[in-house]
Amino acid sequence: MAFRPRSVAVKAKKAATSAAAASASSSAAAPSTSTSAPASSSTVNASIAAVKPTASSSNSTTCDVTMADDHEPVASTSRALAAVKLDHKEEQRLETLLSAIESCFCDWGLSAHRSSGLLDLLEASKDSYVHLQHVLKLPPVRALTDNQADVQKALKLRPSPSLTVHESGFQLRRTNTPNFERLKQMQPADWDDMAIYLENIPAVPTSVDSPSSLSTFLSTLLSSQLQRLVLPPLYDPSNPPSEPNHPRASANDQSEVFAKAQAEASGKESVRRGLGLPTGGGPFRGFAFVVLETKEDAERALETWAWEKTDLEREAEAKGDAGEDRMDEDGEEGKPTSADPTTLARRSGFRALSYARWLDLKAEYLDYQHHLTTLRNSHDRERKSHAYQQRSRRSPSPPRPSRADQHREARDREDNYGPSPHHSSSAKKGKRASDFEAREDRPPKKARRSSVSLVGGPRPGRPATPEPLGDDVAPDSEEALAKRGAFPKGCIMWVRNVHEKSTKTSLKTVLSGLLEELEEGSGRGVEFVDYEKGLDVCHVRFSSSHLASLMLDHFTNSTCTHLAPTYISSPQSTATPPEGIEHDPNRRPIAAQLLEGERERLYWQGLPESTRRGARKSAAGPVALVKERKRLDESTEGESDEERRRRLEEAEEQRKREREKANEEEKRPRKKPSKF
Predict the structure, then answer these.
(1) How crowded is residue 5: how many other Cβ atoms within 10 Å of its Cβ?
(2) Fewer CB within 10 A of the terminal residue: the chain, N end or C end?
């Protein structure tokens, strides 16, 4: 029985009902055998045959209803349903999905995604068909969609030269049978020779209905089926360019070596990773990375579209192709014709480069970019420094008051007016009256023995400047030892070529043992070892200059080598070397030198006064000062009474302004603290 649409059946039923009504009305007017007799079949058939609906729109279907004798009405379509037209966005999405499916079924995809099991499914299948559910599980397809209907739409979008769809529409296979044995043996590094970089690609139509889409255009131009097409973005923030002076990853990479060693330990063949192409996902901008089918195809493309062609050769080719493009089929000029892919490529300057060579050029470019950036930063620093010097010359900063003037002002202020109101108010804040009364009853503190009698006293908040030794004071006298800033001479030794794994404790232990062997009872003569881990130099502080000289003579006259953190080989040493320690000819002997002059002064200047005081009492020898300065009262010699009076008046005015400012701050109302 033929298919009969429901709309046609409804219309036929209405027509039969109207015909029966007409027959009944006519029978009422004329004599008949029976008023309840139904309408004749010929009348109904004639009424149904008269029904012929026509298409009211482009989407409707023209239907004819025919009637044979003693048969049901049959509906037949006069033309097929019109195909649904896709918008450009949906068309591009399906084209991307179809390209991903083609990439998975090509030789590169079967080898790269071997873990998905697609290669094994194709080999195990009788006709090499794979269900679309397995296609949805492939990583490139799963990243685009998880709907089987989308895959079916993409396969119907255009005929694929590499894929064949089953009649049912639910199975898929390759057009040609792949070489399963070859693909099983290939590894990612084997595809490096087939990867090339293409530049100056002409802007071809991107419509999927046209055979000149980008993938089809490149396949035709290179005479090879594309295994992979990568359009990288101009800048990928997740994968920034490599730092300069760092070569690209090779077989000697740490992870590569580790994977190889792990595979050898497990008895499996190690996987060679290869170079790895950049990340795709960018728009087409005239360049791309492609992977061809065989190594021979890549070599032929590199030879045909050489990278190092001169501009004259490219210009000549473009002119020749342009002249040929102006000829029509009859050889007449003036009628432009569509150019073939080769002509378009030559006209745009199309060229190819191996991917390995592209990586080398990228590293060279990054080195050059780093060099230019360094020069630019250096130029910017010089320009800013020059501008700062010019501004300093035009508007020099006012001279700072000398330290002697500051001390005199502080002394005059405290003698005449007492402490500053800021300090007095802040000090008395929150104190009880009994505290100040008890403090006033206390006797005044005596001045320290090492304090310096300066004009105006020392500057608040900073240590007093050491007073130089007088001509009548001996360097080794008790008075010199009590001087602030004095240090013992000849007690610091600089040692080089110590063991790099040493510590302060191990160095102090081994040097104390060596000193005990040189002079009995002097094992505690090493006061401190100034050492930083990982270095081969240190400073050793002895308790006296005699022990420092004794150790220096030993290192100078004997060849001592620091073979271990706790062992120093020496001809006079009676200690047994630790087990496993042998003489190392590559290790240099210890070199030592006593600090003298400015180097010794700078070393002691970085230590606190308590350390210097203990060191000079322990050494009980000649001392020197960390920093000698002239007396501050020498700068006031020759000052007249008028100058002194003017200076005191200025100091008094300054103090008056400070008191007025402090009173204003105290009278200013304070904000109440918030409850929240």
Answers:
(1) 14
(2) C
The Cα–Cα gap between 427 and 422 comes to: 8
In terms of DSSP H, where are the helices of 208-272?
214-222, 254-266
Q: How confident is the model at residue 570 (pLDDT cuts 50, 70, 90)?
A: confident
| pLDDT tens digits for range 433-479 | 444 444 444 555 554 444 433 333 444 444 444 444 544 455 555 66
Output 431 or 501, whichever has higher pLDDT.
501
Sequence-ordered alpha helix ranges (H) in 537-608: 545-557, 597-605
Average pLDDT over all residues of the chain: 71
How high is the pLDDT of residue 48? 39
The tokens describing 167, both together, are 């009649």
492 belongs to a structural domain: yes
Exposure b/e, 43-72, CB count within 10 A at least 16 = b:
bbbebbeebebeeeeeeeeebbbebeeeee
Label the pairing between strands 537-542 and 492-496: antiparallel
SS (H, E, C) 491-510: CEEEEECCCCCCCHHHHHHH
Question: Rounded to an integer, what distance in angstroms lies between the CA atom of residue 225 and that of residue 219?
Answer: 5
Residue 272 pLDDT: 56
Position with higher pLDDT, 8 vs 16: 16
| 574, part of any domain | yes
**Beta carbons within 8 Å of 504's beta carbon, 6+ residues apart:** 529, 530, 531
- Single-letter amino acid code for the residue at 419: P
Residue 426, H or E segment: helix 421-428
In a domain, 508, yes or no: yes
The helix or strand, by DSSP H or E, that contains position 624, with its residue range, turns out to be: strand 623-625
Q: How far is CA 85 from CA 82, 208, 359, 612, 626, in A?
A: 9, 13, 44, 94, 93
For residue 139, what are its two tokens? 């990583």
Radius of gyration of the chain (CA): 50
What is the per-residue pLDDT for 346? 87
Tracing tokens 């929240």 back to the chain, one arrives at 676
Side by side, the strands of the sheet bearing 171-174 are: 130-131, 171-174, 163-165
Number of domains in the chain: 2
Which one, of 68, 50, 55, lies nearest residue 2 by Cα?
68
Q: What average pLDDT does this structure show over 201-214?
A: 60
In whole angstroms, what separates CA 157 from the centre of its chain?
41
Question: Domain ends where: 27, 47, 77?
Answer: 77
In this predicted model, what pLDDT tens digit does every residue of 98-154 receive, in sequence order? 888 888 888 888 877 777 888 888 888 878 888 999 899 888 899 899 999 999 999
**Domain limits at 621?**
485-625
Reply yes or no on whether the pLDDT at 525 is more than 60.
yes
| pLDDT of residue 583 exceeding 70 | yes
- At 212, the pLDDT band (50, 70, 90 cuts) reads very low
- Please check the confidence at residue 158 and state whether its pLDDT lies above 80: yes
Residue 329 CB neighbour total at 10 angstroms: 7
- Rounded to 5°, the CA angle 411-413-415 comes to 65
Q: At which of 584, 604, 625 does a domain end?
A: 625
Query: Do strands 74-77 and 63-66 pair parallel, antiparallel, or not at all (unpaired)?
Result: antiparallel
**What is residue 151's predicted lDDT score, i.e. its pLDDT?**
92
Residue-wise DSSP of 143-188: TT---HHHHHHHHHHS--SSEEE-TTSSEEEESS---HHHHHH--G
Taking the C-alpha atoms of residue 590 and residue 567, their distance in angstroms, rounded to an integer, is: 12
DSSP secondary structure of 297-324: HHHHHHHHT-TT--HHHHHHHHHHHHHH
